[in-house]
Amino acid sequence: MRHQVKPLLLLSLMFLMVGALFCMNDILLPSLITYFKLNYTQATSIQFTFYLTYIIFPIPIAMLIHRYGYKVSLVLAVLICAVGCALFIPAKYHDSYPLVLTAIFVISTGITIINVAANPFAAMLGTPEGAHQRINFVQVFSRIGYAATPLLATSMIYNKSGKIQFDLPYLWLAISLFIILLVMFFSKLPSMKPGKDELFSLKGIIKEAMGYKQLFYGVIAMFFYMGAESCTAGFFIPYLKTVLGYKDVQAANYLTLYYIFTAIMGVIALFLLKYIKANKLVGVFGIGMILLFILCIFYNTGFNEYLLAGLGLFLSIMFPTLFSLAIEDIGSFTGKGSALLNFSIIGGSIFPPIQGMIADNQGVQISYIVPMICFIVITLYAFFFTKKENIINKN
User: Any idea what the Cα angle at residue 288 is, between residues 282 and 289, rounded to 5°?
Assistant: First the structure.
């Protein structure tokens, strides 16, 4: 297997920041509940707004990529993310929750471009048989961004005076993104384009996607996965605070552990995927998630905080491997398939409000039944609805 190393490293740097931006939602939710005096359902407007872009923009973004290529699209994406982070400064100055949600929407628009463009781009940066490993490789850096964010961001938000400065982490993120923007702009990142340069419609993509079983069912699996991931991480700190009595800073330690587990297993998965079929690995990890959810929901074991953090081990490979399974061997349809697949990320907008309503009425602990159900669907997909050829280990 051959890989284009330098472009992959540049994508990895970008994904490092993407991981930090995703993780900030998990830190932001409990801090804004306190700052703006919100209930859980109101606070899940953060996730709803963040993932809403995935139902609005994937097709226009795919058309952008077809016309201008991956490099221009990714540079634009990083610029949009930087602007969104900068909007948190006036949001804090005016104490405006709607402006916070606007900033989150702008950031998510940039991240949507990255998810539509960067994953298939990574798959193209080398020989086809190494696509799973390349996508998992760049996503590992996303997990590192996740792992580094909770303690750093929490220490910035909750200062010694007791004031909540939710804008401060975003200020540093904006500066970092502008630096990455300059590096990407002046780099020799390949100016690749998807296979076919043509206009297309959502109806046309859906009709064509019906011919690819792994993609069609992969869209459904990704919808449930994004809901599960958003719910699991978004209610992580509230679970530790309300069920186990932890403070915000203490809870952030376990959220960091959760993402450290995710990053470590993400690295290990790069080697596992050489010897274990991708769909079976997803299925086994899905069973692990379901078992841990059952323990966290229905039992107080005395070490639930570690069980909750342990979810990160099994969550680690899910997004990149589900993505690569769905677009495997679809040829020139990869760009359009990626756009369609990213529509399913709207699941991250749909499921958190459902969990929020359950948390407001039945408590945070029982609300984790929502991501558990999502992983039952994902596990069924992995074992029964991926490409038949996946049962053969490709070397």
Answer: 85
213 occurs within a structural domain = yes
Residue 288 confidence (pLDDT): 97
CA distance 333 to 60: 16
Read off the amino acid at residue 294: I
CA atoms within 13 A on the CB side of 20: 24
Which mean pLDDT values do the consecutive 10-residue runs of the chain (395 residues) have?
Answer: 74 90 92 93 94 82 82 92 97 96 96 82 74 77 87 88 89 94 82 58 71 86 95 95 92 92 87 90 96 97 96 90 85 74 87 96 97 97 74 36
- The verdict on pTM exceeding 0.85 is no
Residue 164 domain-assigned? yes
**C-alpha span between 365 and 296 (Å, rounded):** 7
In angstroms and rounded to an integer, the radius of gyration of the C-alpha atoms of the chain is 20
Angle at 130 between CA 129 and CA 135, to 5 degrees: 130
> What's the longest Cα–Cα distance across the chain?
59
In a domain, 193, yes or no: no
Q: Tell me which residue range forms the domain holding 365.
A: 5-188+199-391
Domains of the chain: total: 1
Determine, yes or no, domain membership for 194.
Answer: no
